[in-house]
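Changelog-adjacent note: as of this version, every example in the card shows the full chain rather than a window. The one below runs 230 residues end to end.
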Amino acid sequence: MQRRFAVIAAVAMAATSAAGQTKSLAQGPNRIELTLERQEGGNWRAVDPGLVFDTGDHVRFRFRANFEGYLYVMDQATSGKYETLFPREDTGEQNRIEAGKEYVVPATQGWFRITGPAGHDVLYWLVTPLALGAPPKYQPLPPPPKSGAVPPRLTPRCDDTIFKARGECVDSSAGPKGVKPAEKLPENLSGVPGAASRELMFIREQNSSVVASPAPIAGPVIYEFRVAHR
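Full-length structure tokens:
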């Protein structure tokens, strides 16, 4: 099932078997494993998180954490459009995550088509120990602000070394990133009490990303995933 967005991805949750989970996921600090996939010839293939996509590419995510919580995702598109990607009616309203379970995004057996001006879409991933709106600690997540001016864009650049070795255009500035202390968050996320990148470690592997916290996550945590496209 095709879904078209001005953004390059949306997030919904679909539980799949966790029988293949590794010991590293079940032990140690809180961590999230995130894999970006591209459809190629009718099959899905895990790709480098910094891969520069072409207009028309079909993508999806695989997500797994070793702790329980709730997931919220917002997107700042290269067109200037800002919106809630998940949870919402058409991408899935069940946003609770269970430890060790793998979730395919989107949940509708579909995919998302790369569109919009060249640049980096910024996906804000917010993970909370309790659902937003659960009293007395959290208020519901406010609606996204109106879309504003087109944000400054940098044209994705290929890493020459990777291109020569693998023949793929990979932008090292794409993929998961922490939110810098001085960085201004979108209005509806800046009001979440205690939301921050905290002391997160970002481990970039060839075809997956790991976001880890050396200490148990006791409050809302937010990070970015930048998706490069041309």
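Structural remarks: The two ends are 24 Å apart (CA to CA).
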